[in-house]
Amino acid sequence: MSDAKTISRRIVLASASQRRLAILRKAGFDVTVIPSRVQEEWPGDVAPREAVAMLALRKMRAVRAQAGPFPVLGADTEVVLDGRPMGKPADRRNAEEMLRQLSGRRHQVYSGVALGAGTKEWSGVSEAEVKFRVLDDRRIAKYLDAEEYGDKAGSYGIQSAGDLALVTRGSVDTVVGLPLDLVERLWKEMVFAGT
């Protein structure tokens, strides 16, 4: 039986996210990036947990043919407030609206991960809870001026919003967009399946 620590950790990441790339490299993966061109549209009347799993699978499958013999990893993250997905901001004004909605409140973050190798697939979802401090106009403007909101679910990245928000349950990696513990579990399942 193969050992997950001794086999090659070469992987294809179906995402252009520098945050996800950094997490994988820090964990010892040899990463090739092939961004998927999958539209991140919410898949109908689907619960957040199922939606991020479906989107992660779509992204992984979209680049599988280009990955050659290497495993492909897809991921998707969504911020959910009061059961509603917030999505990514269209512009600064939209980002400001999202931050005002999150101010002083708790919300959930779901990150779906999908791993594909050969004809087999493994997937899972990690959940975290984040509590935002009450944000006054000055704090919101300062965050928006730093332009850290672009291409981020809920208009924020936890790594740049450390003074605004606190992860109260789950892992910071889930909020960043790639729960490493889940990636490692799926990797081990793939290795032990002999793929």
In which range does the helix fraction lie?
Answer: 25-40%
Compute the average pLDDT. Answer: 90
The total number of structural domains is 1
Which architecture would the CATH scheme give at its second level?
Answer: Alpha-Beta Complex
Helix/strand/pairing category: alpha/beta
CATH class: Alpha Beta
Shape: elongated
Alpha carbon gyration radius: 17 Å
Sequence of secondary-structure elements: EHEHEEHEEHEHH
User: What is the number of helices?
Assistant: 6
What's the story with the biggest beta sheet?
A: 7 strands, mixed
Q: In total, how many beta strands?
A: 7
**Which range does the strand content fall in?**
25-35%
Uncertain runs are 1-6
Distance between the termini: 11 Å
CATH topology: Maf protein
Note down, in words, how this protein is organized.
It contains 6 helices and 7 strands. A hairpin with a 2-residue loop joins strand 5 and strand 6. It has one domain: Maf protein (Alpha-Beta Complex), CATH 3.90.950.10. Strands 1, 2, 3, 4, 5, 6 and 7 form a 7-stranded mixed sheet that branches. It is 32% helix and 26% strand. It has 195 residues and is an alpha/beta fold.
